[in-house]
Specification:
The complex is a heterotrimer. By secondary structure, chain A is mainly alpha-helical. Chain A is 58% helix and 6% strand. Chain C has 9 helices and no strands. Classes of the chains: A mainly alpha, B alpha/beta, C mainly alpha.
């Protein structure tokens, strides 16, 4: 699993990790029953506080995205397929960020949506 | 033991220290919760090293006292130091005639909790060559040796004084990664002093800001993120901020009818007050750690 | 709950052994030089003895006193008692830790003296010198006492060399002054004691002590010297104790 953290992102690191895990599941790089890196590994890899990783894993576990097998590690839940629900919550998160950026630039939601549609149409051509 | 400070790994009470006329620490009340990675931020000479030395009884405070795990640092000096792994900012290589291996063995003799197997592992990880004379080590190499010495007895408290100083970016990153792994294995409270916030930012969960010996801020990372935010507001022509809003102002800049403030307080409180004063809040952004800290250190800090 | 997870402090035995080991390592280079000199000396002296020369027969005492006094500087080399350093971060009560190092130095000093005496005895045996006289040529107790004083100096004073030079300078000046004012024409100044007086008293006390006069006198001097030495050392080491009320700086 690849986890990328953005140092300029003001969101808490544990939220960023959660989003990255969700993204990996939606995109398909993480499948049901796949093992996640241990807290130690991920903390070392990302050079972050292990507590942050634990927090992210605990939240994900509570949401049923992952589960802990005693003495073996953390795994992706069998139910956490590339479900429509996961996709929706990922899309919402992306949309929220975009909306925030739009507001900062004094744009309305409608203007943002229209621009996105225009761009998407151009790419499809 | 004082019940009030029991859950803190480190607590200082009105700690003051002076060198002649210069004030190193001015009534500092550190509160470092157990298990925290507490980053002590401040310019050079802000008192970070003095605070750490006071904890080790290397320097005696002029006023106030300090506790480590509820133990008084003066009354219980040896027991306090048994809990601490310390990386000093710099001191001359005292045992320059020794090899790294000999020095490690010498230090090990003073810590009953020394973990022989882990020490060997750390030597490997940090690339310390036991047969080398310590006098021939570069600054980065002796830093790595110090990390081995500080971590091998798995101390409940780590005091790291500018630990990344003198390390090139690659080695710094690797060193901090090892530190992160160590923290995952060993329950540890860490105090890291630095004047380069971004170097250790990802590890921090608590922050203390020292400015000329005064502790101007001390809060958890989450509280910092929640309560120090940048507000972009649109204001009518000729608008002046009401007095009550000026007090918690950390930083402000103005461009036309738009103003940008870094303010302390819960977001909805601050927003409500801004709105009540006639301003329209356009945008609220949380700040990265370094920016938030800079806000505390800026000259516009309210009295 | 907190107390259960606290790490223990080391036992004194381990601390003392560590100090003996580390002091041994500090002294190793100097010891090698001394060993080399002694080896050359052995060759020369044995050669003379075999060749029928006078070789090895003198009643002069060896200047181990001076060595005992200066040796603490070597023991504390690289670990300045007042400087910042690893030494004072150890989880050991600091007065005890300082004394442990002094003891470690003492162990090596006595070991070295023992080797030296054995060496002398061996050469004396070759040269047919009476062993009793050979042994009296090494003032062991005086050397030990001087080691205590030297250690007290190194541990107790931030700048021991400056103090030493200063004291030497003062004695020298007193001497000069004494010589000037004690001239016969300055009768009214006659009673001002110069360093001559001081030195002659000290010299006599020392001589009585060093050259094994009568047992009681020797015992009293030894007691006084060791008592004074220990007192000075204790006072010096106490400057570093953890609970010292006055401000200390080891950082």
């Amino acid at each position: 699993m690849l986890v990328n953290l953005d140092p300029n992102d003001a969101r808490p690191l544990y939220l960023q990790i959660m989003d990255e895990v969700r993204r990996a599941i939606v995109v398909g790089t993480l499948k049901a029953e796949d093992p996640l890196p241990s807290v130690r590994e991920l903390a070392g890899e990302l050079v972050i506080n292990p507590r942050t990783v634990s927090q992210a894993y605990q939240e994900l576990e509570r949401e049923g995205v992952i589960y802990v097998r005693r003495g073996q590690g953390t795994f992706v839940s069998p139910t956490a397929k590339r479900s429509a629900g996961e996709r929706r919550s990922l899309a919402l998160a992306v949309a929220k960020r975009a909306l925030l950026e739009a507001r900062r630039n004094g744009l309305s939601a409608e203007e943002l949506v229209m621009s996105i549609q225009k761009l998407a149409a151009k790419e499809d051509e | 033991m004082n019940a009030r400070t029991e859950s803190f790994a480190v607590a200082t009470h009105g700690l003051s220290m002076r060198y002649g006329k210069q004030t190193a620490l001015d009534a500092v009340d550190l509160r470092v919760p157990e298990g925290a990675v507490y980053v002590l931020i401040g310019a050079n000479g802000a008192g970070k090293s003095s605070a750490m030395k006071a904890l080790l009884n290397l320097e005696r405070a002029d006023e106030g006292r300090a506790e480590v795990f509820g133990l008084d640092t003066i009354e219980d000096g040896p027991r306090v130091r048994a809990q601490v792994g310390y990386i000093p900012e710099a001191w001359e290589q005292a045992h320059s005639w020794l090899t790294c291996g000999q020095l490690i063995r010498h230090v090990a003799a003073h810590y009953p909790a020394w973990d022989q197997a882990y020490a060997a592992q750390l030597v490997e990880i940090f690339g310390v060559r036991p047969e080398r004379k310590t006098a021939t080590l570069s600054k980065g190499e002796s830093r790595r040796l110090q990390f081995v010495l500080a971590l091998a007895h798995r101390p409940p408290l780590l005091l790291l004084d500018e630990p990344a100083d003198g390390l090139d970016p690659v080695v710094r990153n690797r060193t901090l990664a090892h530190l992160a792994e160590h923290l995952a294995d060993t329950p540890t409270t860490v105090i890291i002093s630095t004047h380069h916030v971004h170097e250790v930012e990802s590890l921090a969960d608590h922050v203390g800001v020292l400015d000329a010996g005064r502790l101007v801020a001390q809060l958890s990372r989450d509280d910092l993120r929640r309560t120090v935010r940048r507000y972009r507001v649109e204001v009518p022509e000729g608008w002046e901020a009401p007095l009550e809003l000026r007090t918690p102002t950390l930083r402000r800049s103005r461009g036309g009818r738009e103003m940008q403030w870094t303010l302390i307080g819960e977001e909805h409180d601050v927003t409500a007050r801004l709105t009540a004063a006639g301003a329209t809040v356009r945008d609220v952004t949380p700040l990265a750690l370094e920016e938030a800290v800079l806000a505390f250190l800026s000259e516009e800090v309210a009295p | 709950m907190i107390d259960m997870t606290l790490h223990p402090t080391p036992r004194w035995r381990g601390v003392v052994l560590a100090q003996i080991r580390i002091v041994g390592l500090v002294l190793k280079p100097a010891a090698l030089v001394v060993a080399a000199v002694l080896s050359i000396g052995t060759v020369v002296i044995v050669g003379e003895i075999i060749g029928g020369g006078p070789g090895f027969d003198s009643s002069e005492t060896f200047p181990t006193l001076l060595i005992g006094f200066l040796y603490p500087f070597a023991v504390w080399r690289n670990e300045k008692p007042f400087g910042p350093g690893l030494f004072w971060t150890f989880p050991v009560e600091r007065r005890g830790l300082a004394l442990a190092k002094v003891f470690a130095g003492f162990v090596w000093l006595m070991g070295a003296l023992a080797v030296f005496v054995m060496w002398l005895l061996a050469l004396g045996f070759l040269a047919d010198a009476p062993p009793a006289r050979t042994i009296t040529r090494v003032p062991v107790t005086a050397t030990a006492a001087m080691y205590l004083f030297g250690s007290a100096l190194v541990l107790g004073l931030r700048h021991p060399l400056r103090w030493l030079l200063g004291a030497g300078g003062v004695l020298f000046l007193m001497n000069m002054l004494g010589n000037v004012v004690n001239r016969p024409e300055n009768r009214e100044w006659q009673y001002v004691p110069g360093s001559d007086a001081f030195l002659s008293v000290t010299r006599r006390a020392f001589a009585a002590w060093v050259t094994l006069p009568e047992p009681t006198q020797w015992a009293i001097s030894t007691l006084l010297m060791f008592g004074g030495g220990f007192a000075a050392l204790w006072a010096a080491a106490s400057r570093h104790r953890d609970r010292r009320r006055h401000r200390n700086r080891h950082g």
